[in-house]
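Reagents: none. Just compute today. Cytosolic 5'-nucleotidase 1A.
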Amino acid sequence: MSLEPVQVMSGDAPEQLQVRCSANGERQGSWEEDTEARKDETEHLTLRDAKPTLRTPYWEEDTEARKDEIEHLALRDAKPTLPKPENAVTVAVSSRVLFRTEREQRVFEQQGVEEYLRFQVEHENEPFAPGPAFPFVKALEAVNIRLRDLYPQSEELFDIVLVTYNHAHVGIRLINTINHHNLFIERFCMTGGTSPIGYLKAWQTNLYLSADADKVREALAEGIAAATMFMSEKLSEVSQTELRVAFDGDAVLFSDESERIFKAHGLDKFFEHEIENEDTLLDHGPLKGFLEALGKLQKKFYAKGHRMDCPIRTYLVTARSAASSGIRALKTLRAWGLEIDEALFLAGAPKGPMLEKIRPHIYFDDQMFHVEGAAEMGTIAAHVPYGIAQKYPRKQ
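Predicted 3D structure written out:
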């Protein structure tokens, strides 16, 4: 057997390998004279020419585990879904309640709009501090994260719209602030001083929060749930994982029918009226629709077995007494198909201490007396300027 000469790839001239006979009569190559060197070369050639070993792909080794991991990574890296307004629970928030803008407001009131715009541009890289609606908005975003985990393709989420009377020049500072605080707000409505109410209707707004009481009343007159927010110096810590929303009953969730009886004829007549009409449903109030929207999202958690750890919790906190007038309120909610997680009938006792224990992200009441009392205890409270109570001085 003859061996073909090996071409040396270094550029040197080819050499003939020396061949001799082995002990068994076969010819032996010179590589056998240097066993270790030839062993290394043989292993190299074997590795070079060997076909790769086929093995089961790693994702097939544990299909379910890999599926869960892939879904987790996809959810982690995916950009948040932008819900369509017709499918979302749309919450419109004024820049004056989402952020602290008192200094800028003073510039506007004392020096005029041109100086105000110049001031905003000069400070556009300075983020605003959080305002009274900030914890509420963060809680909405926390609920959205949970919803996306359970329903990755669903558009039934909270959709937050920033509404401001500001000129578009101020938009840069607002965007910088939103990015600074890691808020997910993509929808802006900067009206340049005109009323935003028409835009709120176009957004199909479920709730509007503002520092401008006149605009809140205008929204309520158009059938949009709305409330005026105030900045309190004392603020209680609130949950980072559970959205808590508390409502007064009359003139908030319900109409002001019973409140009118009380104002006109006193407490005894009020109790008599409620007992006589125990099985007559109360008419709806301005925030009934928002409670319905919260209930719709709650049921999405219930459907996945998360009733006990649902991140949305609702409260009824009312001055009604349970025995004489509470039953009508509960029957009305049940007839509407609405569930309230907790109901507190205080029979005229102050609401502030109870709200301090609940620590809601927002509490809605139609009477400034209760709003102020709640704020004194550190609760973020919002005034719903609706119903007969608005025609009476606070002391009455």
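Confidence is low (pLDDT under 50) at residues 1-33, 51-61, 72-76.
Action item: order primers for follow-up constructs.
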